[in-house]
């Protein structure tokens, strides 16, 4: 079970989460936690400020004080001893002073800095479970076999992780059974031995990695929304829950920008064929979204609409590109320079990709409807791509028009009668 930052943002939330875990007494869950609330963002900001503020002013950094106050308050409200996080907070202050002294913040140090968020949330939560009589064991992912590349800030999990994590968690359980409370988002670089992070939202990936390593029956990812929704609720609040998704759909959705899932998180679940359930810790009765290998697609038209803003488009016109392979593999800075030798190249910035995740076997119907809607809204699509994926059609529009497009498309596909049209078509064919 993975609980994101919003699920463990306060003492009250931690009590609720403990209640959710205890609601399944017959299960032996492994719990993965993110940092409390917005702690990761605050740590990043505190680090940036430390670079320029001088050692003696570190104690005045607003974000550092917010982090300290939140964690101390949580420990106090859960009636835990301060010693649970005392050492961590001391070390964190030392680290910020070190950054201030060096006037430098490398990617490696940034990963170490943000790791304090997960290290503290898990220590508090494990102590709380033990206090209420539920035996729990706090575990730092970088100590239990999460081995990654040394790409600080966006490390990849290496294959050796699966057997190592399985061995450690099995061994611990046999020696002394206790619910493992594991830090999400973190790993250990295989060359450097330093703490790494898996990219923002990486706790989802921690959870699915453990799921595959242990061959679990189900992976649950608890969020602050009722599941994966038909679009980002911050863009258009009429979004509704998508009850079922395939791994492929969920992966495309995440990859093309839906913040709800980490882009790489579906891979271990798909490889291990372990269902993933996305649930709302604020509304546990809601059924959520169930993500599996396959689902019945015959009535499916569109599943979800995803927006990725601020993308740059390369418009290449050339008659000389036949046989010119490998040119995009060169460094991005050199791509335009290289292409200009063989083509007319325009760099078009402030574009947005709107991805229509759905049944590509209905592509003509989807595109017909989409273009009707966009034409009515006076929007010109600048590129369209169906690619290799069986579930994704992408349209590129100008950034300034993107939100309005999402709203119009959502209304047409999810609030009007497109399903009736498909049902009629299916009836007609049978
Ligand atoms: N298609 C979508 N479905 C659900 N949530 C989405 C979608 N697109 C964006 N979001 C946003 O993702 C948030 C949940 O992801 P995240 O912040 O990583 O949660 P957590 O911190 O609980 O893991 C939601 O609060 C919502 O605002
Ligand atoms: N705390 C990390 C990792 C994470 O997964 O967080 P969340 O589950 O709150 O998205 C982040 O903010 O990126």
User: Quick check: average pLDDT?
Assistant: 91
Number of strands: 15
What is the count of DSSP helices, taking H or I runs of 4+ residues?
13
Could you say which structural class the secondary elements and strand pairing correspond to? Answer: alpha/beta
Q: Which descriptor suits the 3D outline?
A: globular
Total domains: 2
CATH class of the largest domain, named: Alpha Beta
Summarize the structure.
This protein is an alpha/beta fold. It folds into two domains: 2-216, Carbamate kinase, CATH 3.40.1160.10; 302-315 and 350-429, Alpha-Beta Plaits (2-Layer Sandwich), CATH 3.30.70.260. It contains 13 helices and 15 strands.
Please give a structural write-up:
The longest helix is centred in the N-terminal third of the chain and has 25 residues, at 107-131. The protein has 13 helices and 15 strands. It is globular, with a radius of gyration of 24 Å. Helix 2 packs across helix 3 (62-77), helix 6 (161-175) crosses helix 7 (203-214) and helix 7 packs parallel to helix 9. Strand 1 (2-3), helix 1 (11-22) and strand 2 (31-33) form a beta-alpha-beta unit. The protein has helices at 11-22, 39-53, 62-77, 83-102, 107-131, 161-175, 203-214, 247-255, 266-272, 332-339, 363-376, 399-415, 418-429, and strands at 2-3, 31-33, 136-139, 147-148, 179-183, 186-189, 195-197, 219-223, 244-246, 276-280, 289-292, 302-317, 344-358, 383-385, 392-398. It starts with a strand and ends with a helix. It has two domains: 2-216, Carbamate kinase (3-Layer(aba) Sandwich); 302-315 and 350-429, Alpha-Beta Plaits, CATH 3.30.70. The strands form three sheets. An eight-stranded mixed sheet has the order 3-5-2-1-8-10-11-9. Strands 12-13-15-14 form a four-stranded antiparallel sheet. A three-stranded mixed sheet has the order 4-6-7. It has 430 residues and is of the alpha/beta class. The mean pLDDT is 91. Bound molecules: adenosine-5'-diphosphate and aspartyl phosphate. The site of aspartyl phosphate (PHD) has 12 residues, from loops. InterPro entries: AceGlu_kinase-like_sf, ACT-like_dom_sf, ACT_Aspartokinase, ACT_dom, AK-LysC-like, Asp/Glu/Uridylate_kinase, Asp_kin_monofn, Asp_kinase. It holds the Pfam family ACT_9. One of its GO terms (cellular component) is chloroplast stroma.
């Amino acid at each position: 079970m993975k609980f994101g930052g919003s699920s463990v943002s306060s003492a009250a939330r931690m009590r609720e989460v403990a209640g959710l875990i205890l609601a399944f007494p017959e299960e032996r869950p492994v719990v993965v936690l993110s940092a409390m609330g917005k702690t990761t963002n605050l740590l990043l900001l505190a680090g940036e400020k430390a670079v320029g503020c001088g050692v003696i002013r570190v104690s005045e950094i607003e974000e550092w004080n917010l982090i300290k106050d939140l964690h101390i308050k949580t420990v106090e409200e859960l009636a835990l001893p301060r010693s649970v996080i005392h050492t961590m907070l001391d070390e964190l202050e030392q680290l910020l002073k070190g950054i201030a002294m060096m006037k430098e913040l490398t990617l490696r140090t940034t990963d170490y800095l943000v790791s304090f968020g997960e290290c503290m949330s898990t220590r508090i939560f494990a102590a709380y479970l033990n206090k209420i009589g539920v035996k729990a064991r706090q575990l730092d992912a970088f100590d239990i076999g999460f081995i990654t590349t040394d790409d600080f800030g966006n490390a990849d999990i290496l294959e050796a992780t699966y057997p190592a994590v399985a061995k450690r968690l099995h061994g611990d359980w046999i020696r002394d059974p206790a619910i493992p409370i594991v830090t999400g988002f973190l790993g250990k670089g295989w060359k450097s031995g330093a703490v790494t992070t898996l990219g923002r939202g990486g706790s989802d990936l921690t959870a699915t990695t453990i799921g595959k390593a242990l061959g679990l029956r189900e992976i649950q990812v608890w969020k602050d929304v009722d599941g994966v929704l038909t679009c980002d609720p911050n863009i258009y609040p009429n979004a509704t829950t998508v009850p079922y998704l395939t791994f492929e759909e969920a992966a495309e959705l995440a990859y093309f920008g839906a913040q709800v899932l980490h882009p790489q998180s579906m891979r271990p679940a798909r490889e291990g064929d372990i269902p993933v359930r996305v649930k709302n810790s604020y509304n546990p009765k809601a059924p959520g979204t169930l993500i599996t290998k396959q689902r019945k697609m015959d009535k499916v038209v569109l599943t979800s609409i995803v927006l990725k803003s601020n993308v740059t488009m390369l418009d290449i016109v050339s008659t000389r590109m036949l046989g010119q392979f490998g040119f995009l593999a060169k460094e991005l800075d050199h791509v335009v320079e290289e292409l200009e030798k063989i083509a007319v190249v325009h760099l078009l910035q402030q574009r947005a990709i709107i991805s229509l995740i759905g049944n590509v076997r209905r592509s003509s119907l989807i595109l017909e409807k989409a273009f009707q809607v966009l034409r009515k809204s006076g929007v010109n699509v600048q590129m369209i791509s169906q690619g290799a994926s069986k579930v994704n059609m992408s349209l590129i529009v100008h950034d300034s028009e993107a939100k309005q497009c999402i709203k119009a498309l959502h209304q047409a596909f999810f609030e009007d009668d497109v399903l009736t049209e498909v049902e009629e078509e299916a009836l007609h064919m049978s």
